[in-house]
């Protein structure tokens, strides 16, 4: 079973069971962002978690195997047009140089890892309009000289 | 004075005074990310803040005027090659669809604003390697029908 | 039912019933532009409107569900070649900087929202040739500092 | 004098005189959008209007000649990144096919001219946040067969 | 019936009947260029002409309906590689600025319409090698000020 | 003297003398299109014509030499945005396949040369709006087999 | 039968008969390069040659008809990645300006035709490593003035 | 002295001395194509040849040093628009797959080197129009397995 | 059997037999990198090795024939997004000019062949985190003059 | 002093002193690849090494400061045309998927770091032609789940 079929199977089971990523994540003791990303095929799940997810949704071992497979992460290098996703690119475009300045001032020459990395989404209720809070957490990797 | 000259003037004064964005931000009671972004010319500063920044650095009114001017925000639509900035694009590329799923499940059909928006950078010390914490905070805007 | 099938189903029913977007919009008390955009899959319909549209066309609940689903808005970033659509891009290309000047002079630093937004099409009859009147109405969103 | 120098000269005079496009447009009995677009070099001004604009700003005949010259209209075919301008492209991208449907249903096979065309910007005050109103008015041109 | 199927149906009938665009055009009293372009799906035919074409080829009403439908004109924005078509782009590339100079000198600031437009192909016999004569005829549209 | 300087020199002399391409072409017994194209640097002039043009404008031998030099013809492969030039691309885009059909039906497998080629611009006066007539004349070149 | 099916049919017959382009070319008295290019669908064959090729391979008239059809020559404008083909582009990229210098010095302002054109491939045996010899032969076409 | 200045210096000396690449090549006992390519900066000259070229043109050692420097070979990856150079790309585009077929049939899996490579231009006089003969000669390099 | 089907067949057999590229390579006395690349269809296998691979996996002669066929090597010219592959491009991007400096200083003007080439992957165990060692070995090819 | 000026200054001093990267690297006890990359501005040097390099070349503190500055690493995302650098891209293009297979089989799901990374160039003398040996050494970073 490839990742595309796996995602269709999982999303379909999730809809039939009336679940949300949030509810699944709480029940499975995982982060909603990581869980959704593994189910959309953009991250591999360790074997134990793969089995837990498939079993929770009443799906068989081929789904667990597909969750555990190492993905080839393909995403459009053209900036996406969907407004929700575009706004994220806009943030990175507008603030990219600023973040380089502030992070490297704080940490030295290096990068924030996108591999040793996690992310969360929270909702801040506000009478003037609720707010989305995204938290990105990545290991700092310094350049080496040799 | 245009934004490029303004940035050169500010960065040069900052280096001569041995300042960091962090120190400036604390002294001026602003966020380091917003302050750096205004000084790099990607955001306009309200008049009062513009004057405070210029005055703090011992620079004249033309710098304050340039800080207050409304910028045209131009950034490369080709994905940047600098590794620190590229990793941010990679995060948005890998997790874009996941964030759409999780945010819209939580908030309904709409977007996280990149206009009514703020962002912070923090350092989490860790013996296995320090970690970068980015916090993005944007107002949720629902689509309307008519 | 995905958005593509939904659009095919709706357009086919509309043709069989000899309807126009205008007539449907009047009968359903919606805007023709918004109605067409929801039926073409570029906007989600609130549940009540989704049900009203499907029912009006004699279509079943799966169509209503598809109308209510949150779309991923994908459009060609290459400038389209169809002459009607190209002329709209030409207007935005030729007048983009002008609109930035005039809007920000009137409102301050910020943008016209494309989310909290509506649009209408009208016909102005004219013996020298009828004219198309497009009206775009979007909330002004000011940048914040922090 | 080429169009770039003309624009710099006009914008500089306008700033020194403390004028806005709106005030100039009222005094000169022209539309603010058209006036700004001619001064930014994206439209030619008829000789009489060119002379009136230059004279109003206390500028000489070379500015009037530059205003009257026929421009080569060059704009980025890559979608611009400035958020105000990008939102206009997003509107055209999201609603392009919808507008083709609704306009051609109303007028027949043809286009809205971007040449025999005018546009206005208005402000609608609203306690929940002011709104921008853009009005585009273009002649309908039917295709011919032969 | 969509435009692609229509074109296949027409081209197939034309081949079986041993017709040329030229012969069809003479018999139907239309221009060969316009006729071919309508049959290739790049222009809509007025109802009467659509019926005449379908009937001439012994095809049914669904073909006539497809001929009358308003097309979405899609063509590659990358310069085509077929040598016959490329040479046309080369002509426009090499002579574009020249044509702007000569046309606007003759007519004022404006454009040659590609909507209110017709075109013919003729053959000039010549012992040193026959020549292709293309004639393009478009209405001049002046820019307006407002 | 390179082609850019040559063009500036010629255009400047032409303006001072109050000439048009048309008037120059009549006086020099050349086509206005070819003359403008040579003066804009997109074609080389045979030595005799180069000398005649320079002499007519009161310019020296270095201009004649630059007119006679073989140009490197560079033009944007991205479709140009100026509306007059864009409409020419639109014509080629919309009618490219049609012209291939009609020309190859008339002449066999081959192309219309863009090298052994000439072009004219004429004005057709019309009370409903004047029309632009472009005439392209190129040698037909058949493919060979070997 | 379209060109793709024709190529598949021919290549399959060639493999079953254990033929090479070279052997076929010798037997049919054609050039191997031209023969392969016609069979790959990038050139049309005159009727007589088309019949000879099809008959030699034991294929029927529909193959001969497809060989005789006028092709639309489509090739990737992005530089191909296959190393053999890329090296040809590299040669044209590195030596393009050089060839323009040397050819136009020898022949005057004009081009080498790619239409009235032929090409051969030969093998030069060499103990230090065999060498590929490509010979391109195209008619020189001078530009005309008018 | 960089390669650009070197080329300008050499081309200027060559014009003053009334030389052609052909004459220089005969006198210096080099190929005209290689000589032009070294002087245009796309190949390095062995020290002895570099000295001979500079000395022949009456230029000093800095030109010889620049001729001997290893170039960075940069050429447009977008297909060039100059008609002479474009036709070369068209040949490679149209015949690329054909050449792969014919060369690999003759030599096995591998490529024609563009490094261990030479090229010549010849003129074939012909009453129906002279012909350009290009000869490319490259070492065949087989792939290895390991 | 084409290369895609061959790869699917081989990968499927490999999974059923519980093999790794490493184990296969040791048993077949080939390099794991070369073996994987031949099985993924990016290199041809000499007949003997092709037969050995197919036979080892219990697959028939059509797989061996497909392994021996000469591939057309197609790879995305847009930089890939998968993080493992992207990091390799980043290395080449960041160090490309450096490698040109260091290699040409050591070897003279020329290139490292990607045809007469081999590559290995090794693992260096390290308590602070294992390391990947890539070794690339290519013949140096000097440019020739002529 | 910015990185470009720094590189020019260093390369110029290196040429005057008749040094090679290899000799400098041995004397300074650094790797030639890293040293060249720092001097070309693509890596920052730790303060001590920066001072040692500047001092070795007889250059002042501003060069040392520029060497220590954190670079913005910019490289062409279009595949470069210089043959030496292109061959490196070709290797990554042809073997990218193979390396992903072989590395992830050996190490699990993750990447080879381009940050915690070093590289060397060696020469293998060989009577059939010397060979270039590139050695890349990067830390393996496993993905995390959360």
TrEMBL record, chains A, B, C, D, E, F, G, H, I, J:
Reaction(s) catalysed (UniProt annotation): cyanate + hydrogencarbonate + 3 H(+) = NH4(+) + 2 CO2
InterPro entries named among the record's database cross-references: Cyanase, Cyanate_lyase_C, Cyanate_lyase_C_sf, CYNS_N, Lambda_DNA-bd_dom_sf
A GO MF term: cyanate hydratase activity
Active site: 87, 90, 113
Residues of the Cyanate lyase C-terminal domain: 74-146
SMART domains: Cyanate_lyase
NCBIfam families xref list: cynS (TIGR00673), PRK02866.1 (NF002773)
Function: Catalyzes the reaction of cyanate with bicarbonate to produce ammonia and carbon dioxide.
Protein's name according to its UniProt entry: Cyanate hydratase
Originating organism: Echinimonas agarilytica
Phylogenetic classification of the source organism: Bacteria, Pseudomonadati, Pseudomonadota, Gammaproteobacteria, Alteromonadales
